Amino acid sequence: MTGEAARFSFLSLLRHGAGKTWARQWRDAQPKASYDVVIVGAGGHGLATAYYLAKEFGIRDIAVLDKGWLGGGNTGRNTTIIRSNYLQPESAALYEHALKLWENLSRELNYNTMYSARGVLMLAHNHHDVQVFKRHVHANRLQGIDNEWLTPAQAKAFCPPLHIGPDARYPVLGAALQRRGGVARHDAVAWGYARAASAMGVDIIQNCAVTGIVRDAAGAAVGVETTRGPIGAARIGVAAAGHTSVLMAMAGVRMPLESFSLQALVSEPVKPVMPCVVMSNTVHAYISQSDKGELVIGAGTDAYTSYSQAGGLHIACETLEAICEMFPRFRRLRMLRNWGGIVDTTPDRSPIIGLTPVPGLFVNCGWGTGGFKATPGSGHIFAATLASGQPHPIAAPFSLDRFATGRMIDEAAAAAVAH
Amino acid sequence: MLRIPCPWCGPRPENEFRYGGQAGVIRPADPAAVSDAAWGAYLHLRDNPKGRHVERWRHLHGCGRFFTCVRDTVTDRIASTHKPGEAVA
């Protein structure tokens, strides 16, 4: 079945509320022998890439492969923070491109991605934080991106649970606030893109692990070996997050990536208590409240590389200790679950989007600890890059060869998690 | 938290140690003589395997010494640790 997906509307909700059963939202496709484009990784970035390729670049013969299930990797494991107040002009352009797409995404996909611009508050706990965040505020204002400096009292007014008293273990000296920042529903982003892409004819193939990359005599990538048989491809886009190094090694390409386990956890659900997103890079604590009422908390990475999707308990405990100091009223909350996701970090903490030394093979990776916020923008510019064979202007600075030329895009200070 | 067997001090908790990344990355003897690509590879390219990883650790809050560790990156299980200069199994 291809064509328009059945649209969600007030009337369709009424009909289904009266007992009409919902149809499948996307096809569970079987692999064909070959495609124009094969995308490896059915997370937000890979699905968004397929969607924009089909919608804006006229390529509909696409397969999105995933070794597990759709959105089951970092898309379903992150803390859903969205913001664009990055320091470097290249990064600001990239994340602002994404933020503009977030603002209209639910309408574009006819799917409620629950984007909520509730504001992202980044706390400064020491003199250095104050200097760094003020520098970000000024840089962002020059870039035309909203970001403002708040005094401790203003931060407290914006986020009443925040403890700013003189006895605070982590004193709040001020905060940077991006009001357009916020959160979205991570699963809905994957589902919305999958539904819209599938309706345009994109094959989403789950439980299909890539085991090799096939190259012709000239060295160009011409297909993939998978656990469900070989699949030919004129172009291959790898959007596999923490497993990118493993996939690229199949084509003989070494990557400037290290994979770490990044943890998150959620509390038991409570009534609305947390009006915004609060990030504290210095003490590794990130917190917001989901619409279900759970406090969604982001912790740090382990010190060592890993593919375990777990992470040490002491990492999560350090974050909870910091949360309890900053928000004393949360001390009696119980945690429901914690988990890890495997994030691929680059030396400059900026992503890699574009061409590789292997013709026909493209890569979108290195999003590290903060890739969710970029999902629509990343998918859009990677689709443009795959369609034309040349980097989209926003993607161009994020080339793989910057690690040989030295043109780094240093976002170490702005990355969501210090390392 | 890992329990890491320091070759000198025996098993100790992970937070006494500092991770040092992939072991055996050799600095070019004459940096000015190598290409940008080779120098960039030395600085930035890493194996990042899913499975057996030979890596450097330092017992920072213990004896302070460097050593080599063989760990599985899927299970995080440590197969062996070695003093500098020892053959890695």
Q: Can you describe what's shown?
A:
Chain A is of the alpha/beta class. Chain A contains eleven helices and 18 strands. In chain A, strands 1, 2, 8, 9, 10, 11, 17 and 18 form an eight-stranded mixed beta sheet that branches. An eight-stranded mixed beta sheet of chain A has the order 5-6-4-13-14-15-12-16. In chain A, strands 3-7 form a two-stranded antiparallel ribbon. In chain A, helix 2 packs parallel to helix 7, helix 2 crosses helix 10 and helix 3 (89-103) crosses helix 10. Chain A is globular, with a radius of gyration of 21 Å. Chain A starts with 9 loop residues before the first helix and ends in a 14-residue tail after the last helix. The model of chain A is unreliable at 414-419 (pLDDT under 50). Chain B has one helix and six strands, in the order βββαβββ. Chain B has 89 residues and is mainly beta. Helix content of chain B is 10%, strand content 36%.
Topology of helices and strands:
The complex is a heterodimer of chains A (419) and B (89).
Chain A: H1 10-17, E1 34-40, H2 44-56, E2 62-65, E3 81-82, H3 89-103, H4 105-109, E4 120-124, H5 127-142, E5 148-150, H6 152-158, E6 174-178, E7 182-183, H7 186-199, E8 203-205, E9 210-215, E10 221-226, E11 231-238, H8 244-249, E12 258-267, E13 277-280, E14 285-289, E15 295-305, H9 313-326, E16 335-345, E17 352-355, E18 361-365, H10 375-388, H11 402-405
Parallel strand pairs in A: 1-2, 1-11, 2-8, 4-13, 11-18
Antiparallel strand pairs in A: 3-7, 4-6, 5-6, 9-10, 10-11, 12-15, 12-16, 13-14, 14-15, 17-18
Helix pairs in contact in A: 2-7, 2-10, 3-10
Chain B: E1 3-6, E2 10-13, E3 18-22, H1 36-44, E4 52-58, E5 66-72, E6 78-82
Antiparallel strand pairs in B: 1-2, 3-4, 4-5, 5-6
Q: Which features would summarize this protein structure in a list?
A:
heterodimer; A: 419 residues; alpha/beta; 8-stranded mixed β-sheet; 11 helices; B: 89 residues; mainly beta; 1 helix; 10% helix; 36% strand
